[in-house]
Structure formats: structure tokens, C-alpha cells
Design a protein that fits this description.
This protein is mainly alpha-helical. It is built from 7 helices and no strands.
């Protein structure tokens, strides 16, 4: 099955998780796409009862990672298919996240720093890995604020330094970074919530 512009996708292999324009990459997996659809349906069923309001960015990323894992398990006998679908999904999630970030305001220096940190965060985000978002956001803030900065091994993170200063009463030498990090965490959560809600919708890529 070779798909060209204007071709209709056979309903027998239709999977809402796959963006229509990505089907040419999966043309030779036509018979096995049902496994992807089943894994997606199982994930949707598991997600329906889970809370959404107040959920952290880390929890939402874990749920998305679960989908990638379930695809891998469902297609265990066809690793090429599993990796291709996972790559398609991650690429689309990343491009969607960067598009959302690109539409954020950047009228003030603070907004520009937050936007820069978010761009770095989502450009480097490994959706299939178990990460600590706070640490990744911190690194993105530092990279965005100082292109020449290199993180030292064992160096306390921003959150740890805040807690330490509160204990000893020291002054805050880097208020800008900490404020940017706090706002970037909030905004990253908002972005991932939008990605997650798209995955839960009947047509995840209908707005692309």
C-alpha cells in the first residue's frame, strides 16, 4: 500500500493515533497496525478513570510514556513497527509542543527567558524516558540564560539552594533564574496537559 496525496486510508488499517500524513512511513506494516490500535484503545481505557485537575507535569509525562511502552509491548514481535510508531508519535508530540511554545508571548525579558527555557526543554525532552521535570527545566533555564554555562557534577540544584538559603538566612544571588524556573514549570505543565488532552481526544491530530 503506497499512499499519495489525496489517497484515502483504508478503514481496515485506520488508527487515530497515527497522523494521516505519516501513513506512508507505515505502509508496509498494514497488517500489524491493528496491534497499535488495540494498544491505544487499552491505554485510553486505562486513562479514563485517572484524575486530571492538579496533576503534575511529571505524572502526565509518565502517562504518555505508558502509551509508548504499551505500543512496544503490543508490537514486541515487530520491533521495527514499534520503533517507527513510537518515533512518529514522539516527533508529533514534540512539534506540537514547540508550536504551542512558539505562540507564547515574548514581549518582556522575563517572558523571553521562560519561552527560551521551554523551547530547550521540549527540544530535548525524551518522552520515552523516566525524567525529573524539575531538573530538566532547571538545566533548560541555565542553558537559556547562559549559553556558555556548564552544569557541574554534584552541584546543588536551584530548588536545593533555595531550601538551604531559607535555612541559613542567606540572600538570594539568582532570583531571576528561580522565578523563570518556577514559571517555566507552570507553563510546561500547561503544554503537556494540552498534549495529553489531544491524545485522549477522538482525533488527536485534527488541529495540526
Amino acid at each position: 500500500m503506497v499512499l499519495r496525496k489525496g489517497d484515502r486510508i483504508p478503514m481496515a488499517v485506520w488508527c487515530p493515533l497515527i497522523p494521516p500524513d505519516e501513513y506512508p512511513r507505515l505502509a508496509h506494516f498494514e497488517r500489524d497496525l491493528r496491534r497499535v490500535s488495540q494498544a491505544y484503545d487499552d491505554w485510553l481505557a486505562a486513562m479514563r478513570g485517572k484524575p486530571f485537575v492538579g496533576t503534575t507535569v511529571g505524572v502526565l509525562l509518565d502517562r504518555i510514556r505508558m502509551l509508548l511502552i504499551e505500543i512496544g509491548v503490543a508490537c514486541a514481535q515487530n520491533r521495527e513497527l514499534a520503533e517507527t510508531v513510537q518515533r512518529v508519535l514522539v516527533d508529533r508530540l514534540r512539534s506540537s509542543a514547540l508550536r504551542i511554545v512558539g505562540n507564547m508571548p515574548d514581549e518582556t525579558p522575563f517572558q523571553r527567558r521562560v519561552k527560551s527555557a521551554l523551547k530547550i526543554f521540549f527540544q530535548n525532552l525524551r518522552f520515552a524516558r523516566d525524567i525529573i521535570p524539575e531538573e530538566e527545566i532547571e538545566l533548560a533555564v541555565l542553558r537559556g540564560g547562559d549559553k556558555g554555562h556548564k552544569r557541574e557534577t554534584g552541584r546543588p540544584g536551584i530548588i536545593a539552594r533555595i531550601l538551604k538559603r531559607r535555612r541559613v538566612g542567606d540572600s538570594d544571588p539568582t532570583p531571576d533564574n528561580e522565578l523563570v524556573m518556577k514559571q517555566a514549570l507552570i507553563e510546561s505543565s500547561n503544554v503537556v496537559k494540552r498534549l495529553y488532552m489531544r491524545l485522549l481526544s477522538p482525533d488527536p491530530w485534527g488541529c495540526d
